[in-house]
Design a protein that fits this description.
Elements: E1 5-11, H1 15-26, E2 33-40, H2 46-50, E3 56-60, H3 65-74, E4 80-83, E5 89-90, H4 94-105, E6 109-118, E7 123-124, E8 130-131, H5 133-136, E9 147-149, H6 150-156, H7 168-178, E10 183-195, H8 208-219
Parallel strand pairs: 1-2, 1-4, 2-3, 6-10
Antiparallel strand pairs: 4-9, 5-10, 6-7, 6-9, 8-10
Length: about 220
């Protein structure tokens, strides 16, 4: 039987973008997936939009991105997890290529290249190589929307719910690499990151040094 991929979509007042994320997941050439939308106490039409689709919808009081991802993953039934934010989207062959790469490289985590859209149009390509903890000591080497084995989330204790100012994915990947899980990347951009005034990328820069120090101190690495 084909491995199942659980797509986790946290959403907080991003109802106007949510359809793009859901529809890009539903359009995948790899069909053994489940989609879980977690509404983090939104006051817009997030739940109404999500309920239009054949997806699982969870609701909770506002707890932040890490807690919202954790809530979705705790309900997931797939062997693989793919988190994607409600304002982003993926190419239709994304899961097929990521899973093929994972099997070929015997990898635990596979990261697609990133293409920005709307506000600006930069691409972030990652060499077809293994990613190591050394690079993550300096900065986040990838982004949050990478395919990974569910067992990693269970092993390292999920996303750190104390991180309220972004970089929770940086922390997650660093902890996974510290435990020697294998992370690889694909050069081709298959993940589309929407640039808009409320994009996380516009907010986290001011907290880079603070969050880096927090991550390194927690992991007891220098």
């Amino acid at each position: 039987m084909l491995d199942k991929i659980s797509v986790i979509i946290p959403c907080y007042n991003y109802g106007k973008y949510l359809s793009d994320a859901i529809e890009s997941a539903l359009a995948q050439t790899y069909k053994n997936i489940e989609i879980i939308v977690v509404d983090d106490g939104s006051t817009d039409n997030t739940v109404e939009i999500a309920n239009k689709y054949t997806v699982k919808v969870l609701t909770q009081n506002n707890r932040g991105l890490s807690a919202t991802r954790n809530s979705g993953i705790s309900e997931a039934t797939g062997q693989w997890i793919f988190p994607i934010d409600a304002d982003d989207k993926i190419t239709e062959n994304c899961f097929e290529q990521l899973l093929e790469k994972a099997k070929k490289e015997n990898a635990d985590i596979v990261c697609p290249g990133l293409q920005e859209f709307e506000g600006r149009n930069r691409s972030h390509r990652y060499a077809d190589k293994n990613l190591t903890l050394e690079g993550f000591k300096i900065t986040n080497q990838v982004h949050a929307s990478c395919l990974y084995k569910r067992g990693i989330w269970e092993d390292i204790g999920g996303y750190d719910e104390n991180m309220k100012e972004g970089h929770e994915d940086w922390d997650f990947w660093a902890r996974a690499l510290q435990k020697e899980y294998k992370m690889v990347a694909i050069n081709e951009p298959m993940f589309f990151y929407r640039i808009h005034p409320d994009s996380m990328i516009r907010k986290v820069g001011a907290f880079h040094i603070k969050n880096r120090d927090y991550i390194l101190n927690k992991l007891k690495i220098t």
